[in-house]
Design brief:
Blueprint lengths: L8 H22 L5 H12 L5 H12 L6 H24 L3 E2 L2 E2 L1 H5 L1 H19 L5 H24 L6 H26 L4 H28 L2 H4 L5 H4 L5 H7 L4 H13 L7 H10 L2 H19 L7 H15 L3
Antiparallel strand pairs: 1-2
């Protein structure tokens, strides 16, 4: 495979600047309701920012297939609204206090209003997607939301437990990678891609999403609270065993196993410190192993689109996995 000219992040965002700005405006309009609380919560969530990487890959996918209509902006907003709805529900389930360095919405409006606002956002996303008059798009969105809800329920059943890597990868596919995959699929559907090419970009999205979540989980363990915008080791405090933790659990001594297990089971660092957990993870190379697996998924994503002709859009898609793996927050 020949190596195309390298593209940098600044060029990617310049390439998508106008469309991302249009998505932001659409997002703002689409989260307005006759009920003031919904509009307030929607505006608060939108104001929290975010990387907007999901609508960005949808835009790139549509451009890869030379799509020029307004549907990519509309569906980009749809995917960000769905993502936002999942964050609202996740924060309620996890009893989160902060999100992106600000108080979580549920701490401002309460769980009841936020559950209903999240439901409204889901329904609004389908209402907007319906404007495309494309049953394949609706079918993909329905499957996506079912996968995400199933993933959340499965995760709740496994909280506090020492799960296997296979179970963990199934969870992160449902909760994160499926959304990335559907974003890429949406662009392909809009661009009337062949079934074979649609599957290639959907695979790219899946692998990109897997890499994204593995890195996210590592950062939860290793980054600072000021960088993360939320407490460090939130996953452990919520009873979630992520890849590095599972890797260490499969290799550590009975005493070390008991330490990690107590944090998961009690959902608190009672008698065990975050530093002690990190020491165990580093002892068995678990952090490095997780980084390596994320890099493998990133390389798999690049390979999924290697047969497409060289273009500015392809170079942007080849850059995205590196961005996902090397990010610090």
């Amino acid at each position: 495979m020949s190596t195309p000219t390298v593209i940098i992040g600044k060029e990617v965002f310049e390439l998508l600047r106008d469309d991302l700005a249009a998505i932001e405006r659409e997002f703002g309009r689409d989260t307005v309701s006759n009920v003031a609380a919904i509009t307030e919560i929607g505006e608060y969530l939108r104001g929290g920012g975010g990387k907007r990487i999901r609508p960005a890959v949808l835009l790139l996918s549509s451009k890869l297939f030379n799509y020029e209509g307004r549907g990519a902006v509309r569906l980009g907003a749809v995917m960000e609204i769905i993502h936002t709805a999942t964050l609202v529900h996740d924060d309620i389930i996890d009893e989160a206090q902060t999100r992106r360095g600000r108080p979580a919405a549920n701490t401002q409006w309460g769980n009841s209003k936020c559950v209903l606002a999240g439901d409204w956002l889901y329904m609004q996303s389908f209402r907007i997607a319906l404007q495309e008059r494309n049953l394949r798009i609706l079918d993909a969105l329905i499957e996506l939301t079912q996968q995400m809800v199933e993933g959340e329920l499965l995760q709740m059943e496994k909280l506090g437990k020492c799960i296997s890597q296979e179970e963990h990868f199934d969870l992160i596919y449902r909760k994160t990678a499926c959304l990335f995959s559907v974003c890429m699929r949406m662009g392909a559907i809009l661009g009337n891609a062949s079934p074979q090419d649609e599957e290639k970009v959907a695979q790219y999205g899946r692998d990109l999403g897997m890499a994204f979540q593995i890195v996210d989980d590592v950062l939860d363990l290793t980054a600072s609270e000021s960088v993360l915008g939320k407490p460090v080791a939130s996953d452990l405090r919520e009873g979630k065993a992520t890849m590095a933790v599972i890797h260490a659990l499969e290799r550590c001594s009975p005493e070390e196993h008991a330490r990690i297990e107590s944090v998961l089971r009690n959902r608190a660092f009672n008698g065990v410190t975050h530093e002690q957990i990190l020491e165990i993870l580093n002892k068995y190379g678990s952090i490095d192993t997780a980084h390596s697996r994320a890099a493998e998924y990133a390389e798999s994503a690049r390979k999924a689109i290697c047969t497409f002709p060289d273009s500015e859009i392809k170079r942007a898609l080849l850059w995205a996995p590196d961005f996902v793996v090397s990010r610090e927050k």
